[in-house]
Amino acid sequence: MVFILYKSSVIILLFICQHLSLQNEINIYGPGLQPKKIVMPARYFFVNFTSYNGKYSSTLSNDFAVEIEGTSIKKSHCRIWVNKLDRKDGTFIVRYKVYDTCLDLNISLYYKSKHISGSPFNFKGPVQPDQCDCPHQHFETWLKEYGCPSTYEQIEHDLNRYQDLDMKDQVKKIIKKYHKPESTSFCHYAVNKNQIYRKCYGKHVGFNMFSDNILLFLSRKVILPNMELVVNLGDWPLVHKTTQPFPIFSWCGSDDTVDILMPTYDITESTIENMGRVTLDILSVQGSIVHNWSEREEKAVWRGRDSRLERLKLIDIARANPSLFNASLTNFFFFKDKEAEYGPKQPHISFFKFFDYKYQINVDGTVAAYRLPYLLAGGGMVLKQDSPYYEHFYNQLRAWEHYVPVFRDLSDLKERVLWARKHDDAARTIAQNAQKFANENLLPQHIICYHAVLFSKWSKKIKSEVTINDDMTHVPQQKFSCHCDTKEIPDHIEL
User: At which residues are the Filamin repeats (predicted)?
Assistant: First the structure.
């Protein structure tokens, strides 16, 4: 009887020691742990079980649980949608969307039904949903509280040629030079007293929804500086190096142009609509991967339309080497006369299926392929075509560290895949570096910060007063009921 009791005590002691050991090996971090200061459409944070790094146990996801709840203004439960994303490498992404003003917010994290280190996390409100128009009064203070850096190398590069601008004069010259309704479209924006106005030029101006949305988003969070800017709504950058450097903001840059770069409309929209109407974003990519590295097929995968001649060459290479490639065209538009030779077109596959393979190919479309951020995040080794086009973050990428470079004509593509097969550990390290880069530079917080820092820096380049012309359209915030200040909360509610 004594032996049985002793044995039971040892088992209990071992269990306690194992649990305490695991507690010390859990790393919890991310902007979602500052829900009052960092307001996003979907707040998120990471939970890393460091003892599982580089390996995966299917039981971990069942053993780890999340609860996030709060109290609304009406003293009922806050409406909160919680999403647990399993990266299958010992790390989870927890994201949650708040639909009400919450007086408090409680985040509970469990491993095998027991709170893990630091849990529960309790926050005094009000914690606001993204839709609340509750701007911070001081821009620089807000930048610091939001966790934004003071500047970015690309921003400094793009803006260093401008100083003391008279935007009335600049806008007139831009309209005269670039207003070609059939081929270019752009919008002149004016921000005054945190209200947004615009006038658009060109035949196809539907993409103004993307520039509208980021300005509206930011103006709900902070009082924007008064400023004017011209946003190019097309994919191609406009301001050639050989011309006068007119200040035009674009989503893509090139070696031959000097446009001021913003994050692409694609990654910006996936940020603003996170846990909304978009299904592809940097976070969901990481949480939708089925296979870890060792289980993935040793092939290079690609799908896309025929928007560049090199994409046809890619199909030639893939057909000649079916054991190395899985590549197909999904649509013909630019080379319809080649459909008989390079078709039939194949149906689209889920972007997440790309990561059933170890290697992903990134080839330019009409300009830079805007899928690159998602490829970097997916934990595969990216084969990136050499390109004159670039996005706002390309200057931070390093060949052979974050991706494997491929000649523009793809003549060494086969050689690169064979190299990756032969050097699996090195290929995996590059894939891990790429995902780390995406998580340190391309998550929603980073995209929001880049825009905010860019607009702040830009506003200081303008010397002219902002005026709202009669022919400009006011871009209003959507109506949403919330309580921005504790003074607005009814007296019978205690904080």
Answer: 18-125
